[in-house]
Amino acid sequence: MKFKLTLFSLLSISIATASAQSTDSLMLRKIYDEELVNGQCYQNLHYLCKNIGQRLSGSANAQKAVDWSKKLMESYGFDRVFLQEAMVTHWVRGEKEVGKIIDGEKQIPVAIAALGGSVATPAGGLSASVIEVHSLGELKDLGEAAIKGKIVFFNRPFDPRFIETGSAYGTAGDQRFAGAAAAAKFGAVGVIVRSLTESIDNYPHTGTTRYDADGVKIPAAAISTMAANQLSNMLRLKKLPVIKFYFKQSCQLLPDVLSYNVVGEIKGSENPNKYIIVGGHLDSWDLAEGAHDDGTGVMQSVEVLRILNATGYKPKNTIRAVFFMDEESGGKGGAKYAELAKANNEEHIAAIETDEGGFTPRGFSFVDASPAFLKGINKNWSTLLAPYESDRLVAGGGGSDIEHLKATRPGIVLIGFRPDSQRYFDIHHTPNDVFENVNKRELELGAASMASLIYLIDQHGLNF
Amino acid sequence: MKFKLTLFSLLSISIATASAQSTDSLMLRKIYDEELVNGQCYQNLHYLCKNIGQRLSGSANAQKAVDWSKKLMESYGFDRVFLQEAMVTHWVRGEKEVGKIIDGEKQIPVAIAALGGSVATPAGGLSASVIEVHSLGELKDLGEAAIKGKIVFFNRPFDPRFIETGSAYGTAGDQRFAGAAAAAKFGAVGVIVRSLTESIDNYPHTGTTRYDADGVKIPAAAISTMAANQLSNMLRLKKLPVIKFYFKQSCQLLPDVLSYNVVGEIKGSENPNKYIIVGGHLDSWDLAEGAHDDGTGVMQSVEVLRILNATGYKPKNTIRAVFFMDEESGGKGGAKYAELAKANNEEHIAAIETDEGGFTPRGFSFVDASPAFLKGINKNWSTLLAPYESDRLVAGGGGSDIEHLKATRPGIVLIGFRPDSQRYFDIHHTPNDVFENVNKRELELGAASMASLIYLIDQHGLNF
Questions:
Q1: Where in chain B is the domain with CATH 3.50.30.30?
Q2: What percent of chain A stands above pLDDT 70?
């Protein structure tokens, strides 16, 4: 592109700043101006990623992140900053994992990473024939005779036809989440799972797996999509027993440890015991810096409060930024937050979760939204949000940290922040989830879009 | 994010595939499925970037790109593939430029790049005192006495408050585009221009500058935003004459050379002489691979035809993919295309230009669109495009290559493809405009969105 004056966009900005005189549109413009000119979330994220780094639940680094986050919130002069104690998951990866495809005498090293929550292999590693499957259902069709003593290789790829990649993740995810538990029932000795991404790369994408409480626990690892394709090709070309897989991992689940959610709030001037919250999770996986997952989410959450303060806005209801602990490993911080909200009779009006990356905002999804609600909210607010291109207000998920709040109050509205989804699973849960892959403006626009929605909810409620 | 089944998106896909039975919605789903499953534009772009590389207008590499593009189109079996001769701009950069801030005895090297079309400095370089300005208007206020014999440093930054970065580019762009011509009138001996980006980086962002035909031509270069900030700080701290700037560049404008637009078409079954075209520019700047500018645009354009063929669609009107030559340096390919369209009495219904990067599509802008047109097109088509999140149909720019078509036919609709704009000016016209900064799915979604729009125009016209 050479040179062009995009008249329409200039028009939009002037409409929002001058012509449309409503208080709401002026306030939204003020929010965006504050963030795009004076935004601090990008530099805060830099500190979190580069000076603290990975923040695996239960780790010393997670504690460092808690301490720093509390100080950060205090530095902004919010009305109240506090920690909520929670006993959280403490899983450790141990030594770097080793994975190999064994083809007779040939041993081909491949990129693997233990799944979060997985048990270790025997100290010398585990070697067995491989059986490739594409669904949990296929295990039943094959039966114990075919599976017993083998390593089950779950290899169903992402379906590229979904427009939002979160849907591809959702439909492929049972392999990682429930594959080990399911395969163990048929006598499998281990599980390797194709990384949950459409990208063909050589990074294992980690993430949790869950065992049945009373079931056999077998070790489980993610394998890169490139290695998965290679293994699958080799299995297709050779008879099954010729190809074996070897892996070694020393991860273990330790007893829960004390950790904290970090909470900052601006007290409501009219309804101090009514809450609108925005949050993400402070813990991360341990393979990188947890930049998009979910450093961007927590730094946007605190930024929402900073923006509202900076614009001089005095909310009617109490606005909170919540940094949840242990989202990745067990979700115990989110559960604790809801438990305390109920115990303290805090009336939560709405909760926004930002945990889909710090990409350009597209809009918000509302949990269990009725057609009437969607019609009402779109009619009233989409025109206000349209100049900022964050006006896709749809039914959909909220997020796993806020979902516990559902039980605290019938009327609560749970909301998911929806950024553009195309790049998220390229880096999700991999060594590539680093600060360098976050764009400053995209991050800031997300923070401003959430500050705008919170302002609108605070002013007008959500009774559509 | 841990694990989530995004019900809404699954719902969208099922609506588009099953429930909504209209021919149009089924065809759009077919287009997206074809592209997301069998897309070829990413691998084609890889070839263009890595096996050919930069394609500066008039260069040997531009000719290589023409030859390969023609072969590529022929390999897809389109009804007709042909070249259009055009005499195009032939500017050459010469030796790598040298730029220095001179502070007494101290010489600080800084990153600069000659602006396209600029003349050279004297062979030994040019050294002069610097005067910093922030607008073309400021030159007049300062007057010849203050400017004569100096290097004018245009340093107005991007305005971060624009939501779409193209608007910031548009409002800052006159410094680069017209700064040298304007400064020359007041006796300046050279011009350096702050790179047109919000990003604070150390890359010069090149691009054209235009001289007045009868004016004095002074050398002009882009300076990185980091170096611009440094120079500005030094000028603020010290008295003006102490700080000088030195630069040396050996670029020159050679006589126009013969080159080509590359055109592929699928013949219309009902109206073979009515045309709907989609195009981008094949030439690029010479600092990198022209990946987003505009390798993505040309590879998407040919992909639109490939998709339509692959789905078995027989268009009523002739559909063309056009690779324009010389967009960056002079725009002569675009002018030639329009000239031939008029001379050959080709009735162009609509033209889409894709030259804002291969990022996630947001929608389309329509040149000189009336409120009635926008209302009509949104009412009829935005619901069809919404499942693909490419439904922002607004008034706005088309693009500099297709704008020449305006004169060929009163009713023609000029359309700009509008991808997400946040990351474009981070890499625009820099050494960072490489294949690695293109996301496969984002690129493919753009191609599918344009194939969808072309299908709808072909079926229903644009008489809103």
A1: 94-250
A2: 95
- Number of CB pairs, chain A paired with chain B, less than 8 A apart: 195
Which residue intervals of chain B bear CATH 3.40.630.10? Answer: 19-89+255-460
> Across all residues in chain A, what is the average pLDDT?
95
Hey, are the CB atoms on A6 and B170 less than 8 Å from each other? yes
pLDDT tens figures, A310-358: 999 999 999 999 999 999 999 999 999 999 999 999 999 999 999 999 9
Rounded alpha-carbon distances, angstroms, from residue A407 to A320, A414, B287: 19, 11, 57
Instruction: Using CB atoms, pick whichever of B163, B396, B439 lies closest to residue A422.
Output: B439
Residue A138 annotated as catalytic: no
Q: What letter represents residue A157's amino acid? A: P
**B94-250: CATH architecture:** 3-Layer(bba) Sandwich (3.50)
Q: Is A431's Cβ below 8 Å from some Cβ in B?
A: no
DSSP lists the bridge partners of residue A316 as none
> In which order are the strands placed within the sheet that holds B361-366?
B80-92, B252-266, B317-324, B271-281, B347-353, B413-419, B361-366, B392-395
Taking the model in full, what pTM does it have? 0.95
> What CATH number does the domain located at B19-89+255-460 have?
3.40.630.10
Q: What is the mean pLDDT of residues A90-97?
A: 98
Q: How, if at all, do strands B392-395 and B361-366 pair?
A: parallel
CB contact under 8 A, B400 and A355: no
Distance from CA of A325 to the nearest CA of B (A): 13
B294 part of contact set with chain A, CB < 8 Å: yes
Per-residue pLDDT tens digits for B256-290:
999 999 999 999 999 999 999 999 999 999 999 99
Domain A7-89+256-460's class?
alpha beta
Counted residue by residue, chain A has a size of: 464
pLDDT class of A238 with cuts at 50, 70, 90: confident
Predicted ipTM of the assembly: 0.94
Residue from B54, B50, B114, B60 nearest B285 by CA: B54
The reply to whether A107 touches chain B by the CB within 8 Å rule is no
Residue B330: its pLDDT value, please? 96
CB within 8 Å of A165: residues ≥ 6 apart = A158, A198, A421, A422, A424, A425, B441
Strands lying side by side in the sheet with A106-110: A106-110, A98-103, A243-248, A126-133, A151-154, A190-194, A220-223, A112-114
CA dihedral B320, B324, B327, B330 (to 10 degrees): -120
The residue in chain B having the minimum alpha-carbon distance to the alpha carbon of residue A170 is B5
Partner-chain residue, chosen from B208, B357, B445, that has the shortest CB–CB distance to A2: B208
Would you give the distance in Å from CA B38 to the centre of its chain? Answer: 26
Q: Which residues of B are catalytic?
A: 327
Contact residues on chain A for B208, CB-CB shorter than 8 A = 2-3
pLDDT of residue B8: 42
The verdict on B423 touching A (C-beta cutoff 8 Å) is yes
* pLDDT score, position B287: 97
Range(s) of chain A covered by CATH 3.40.630.10: 7-89+256-460
What was the pLDDT predicted at A60? 98
